[in-house]
Amino acid sequence: MGGRLSENVTRLDGPQRIAGVDLARGLAVIGMFSAHLLVTGDGFAWTDASTWTAVVDGRSSILFAALAGVSIGLVTGGRRPLSGEAMTIARWRIALRAAILLVLGILLIVTGVPVYVILPAYAVLFLLALPFTVLPARTVLITAGALAVVMPFVQPMLNDLPIWRSPYAAELDAIIGWHYPFAVWIAFVLAGLGLARAGITHAATQIRMLGIGAALAALGYGVAQLPAPALDRYWWSVWTAQPHSSGLWEVIGSGGFVIAVLAACLLLCRLRVLKAITLPLRATGAMPLTAYTTQIVVWAIIAGIALGDTGDLGGFRAMDPFWPLTLGVIVACTAWALLVGRGPLEWALDRIVKRVVTAQPPR
Asked: Which stretches are transmembrane (predicted)?
């Protein structure tokens, strides 16, 4: 047991994992739990401590999207994109992961738990990111920036397409994760991919990320606070920083915020003592799919038994489930990471993908 424990600690702390990325994922998981289980109020304001829990609204899922891009960047070569057969294999494996995440996401939706399941959106975003995996950091980051500025102006028109007034609009919305619309959210994924290509483990890169992210957050949230002239419905949907609006200032402000958070996590984990203190969050962040899925499954079981309705959000929140469920998941993930190793769903997904897409790419 001692040998296994030592091996697993080494795995979490060793060069095969980036501690700051795991910490950021852990924070994103807890942020999603908070957004699901807490009543976070109408808006976040730095000057009002009672609103601070609202910081998780929208930003947690955007952090997840950016970290998805980082993961794609790392598995396709890090600073130097893979080439030839190696890139082909990596891309097929990412595509298969997307398909499995879509199926798992649909199964979680079927539980009836009243959350916008992010996994179908993940699946679509993974596929959209594939053409960009061969590009260098500069090109990917410029593309991410261009999409971040342009697509908020396009999104309201996409939301008004006739298909969203069809009888199957709700089902389509769930299956493609339109609460996290890929037309806008691909910018966050590409930002993460570009950062992985830029050398995310280098201190200089991390410091630049912190400065640029903070500046973008200040710009986006600052402009959104300025008095605005009378605007029609289209311009209101563009000129906003409201969570999940996909408005211009949300994309810039929240995009900058998550880049700064990721940078802060990377810099903090350079300090040995903080790296040790954050081990439970890092362990949770090392198995985000397991943690996220567990939350929804446990929610469905408890609500189904206690309330007779998995969709009763008010009834479930009235049970004050946040701390028991959150601490339970953190403790369980930490124990599993130390005593067993890789998260069960992460292990299963990796085994399936590598068994199906072997060293010889599909023809």
From this structure: 21-41, 61-82, 94-111, 117-135, 140-158, 178-198, 210-228, 248-269, 289-307, 322-341
Residue 57 and residue 74: Cα distance in Å, rounded?
27
340: its two tokens: 């067993």
Measured distance CA(303)–CA(293) in Å, rounded:
15
How confident is the model over 279-291, as pLDDT tens digits? 999 999 999 999 9
Give me the helices (H) in 76-136, please: 84-110, 119-129
CA distance 341 to 356: 23
Whole-number Å distance between alpha carbons of 258 and 192: 10
Task: Indicate if the pLDDT at residue 62 is higher than 60.
Answer: yes
Domain parsing of the chain, residue ranges: 2-356
Query: Which residue's entry shows tokens 């997307």?
Result: 98
d(CA 149, CA 144): 9
Report residue 49 as tokens. 């401590």
Residue 248: both structure tokens together: 């211009």
Q: Tokens at residue 203, please?
A: 């201190």
